Amino acid sequence: MLISLFQKYLYERPAVLLITTMLMWAGNTVASRLAVPEMSPMVVSTLRWFFASIIMLYFGRGTFKQQWLDISPHWKYVTFQSIAGFSLFNALFYYAAHLTSGINLSIIQGSIPVFVLIGAFVWFGSHSTWMQIIGVSVSLAGILTVASSGKFETLKTLTFNMGDILFLVACLSSAVYTLGLRNRPAVHAISLFTFLALAAFITSLPLVFIEYLNGDMILPSLKGWLILVYIIIFPSTISQLFYIRAIEMIGSSRTGIFINLIPVMGAVLSVLVLGEQFGFYHIAALALVLTGIMLAERGKPKQS
After folding, report:
1. In whole numbers, what is the pLDDT of the chain averaged over residues?
2. Residue 129 forms part of a structural domain
3. In angstroms, rounded to a whole number, what is the distance separating the alpha carbons of residues 187 and 108?
4. What are phi and psi of 40, to 5 degrees?
5. How many CA atoms lie within 13 Å of 156's alpha carbon, on the beta-carbon side?
6. Does 133 fall in a domain?
7. Contact 101, 146 (CB under 8 A)
8. What are the start-end ranges of the H helices in 36-129?
9. Residue 156 has what DSSP assignment?
10. Tell me, what's the pLDDT at 291?
11. What is the model's pTM?
12. pLDDT > 90? residue 236
């Protein structure tokens, strides 16, 4: 009964899936900031994907076992996807959380649709209209505004917050993952995500080992474990299944517009939960990012 209701009112509704996913990802921004004094970045990332793998292997083992032969020929491609969207993205994300604010992380995450649009042109040869080009330019102006804290002098001297730069690279990596899902193996979302989670855990091990050798490893405190529970269940597991399912139904281009919700949701949560100050340059940057993405979306070539 519960499963049938879930499929009828949630799993078959891409808009609901994506709105829920974006709220979970916005919450992950807040969780990453809360985790800063509780555990080191690669400990968060490695434990996140370790437990996500365990959960998926337990609940999805039947489907994964049945479709293993369909996934295994594509293991190199899927592993690359896992590195781009999971292990590398999270490593940069959690390191960036030590160096910049939750509001900045939220607004910069709005660059992902821009990178997806640019990547679709470079990777797949998608045609871009003048409206899309203008939209991309406006969004990039918003990213520069938040990265420079709204100070023109910073742009002239090219001295940016390293956390913002790291997360911008992470967003580029996430865009590569989103675009790559277009050519994913034709298997169930549960089977695909189980492989992705396993690959993310395995590829994060060298990074956490380096963190240990450098003497930077911090194991989770009690509060850290509570934060991890949220990260593992929601941003790591449920949201990823929802996201893969939504792309399966409506494609990567149409899902991109929903990522626009993360800057808004994340900024609001950062103010409410973390008590961060929302400055004028944040408002200007958020307006530029959202306006740019809106222009880019409205400027998409009409389907014939």
Report:
1. 81
2. no
3. 32
4. -80, 160
5. 3
6. no
7. no
8. 41-59, 61-71, 75-82, 88-97, 102-108, 112-124
9. H
10. 77
11. 0.78
12. no
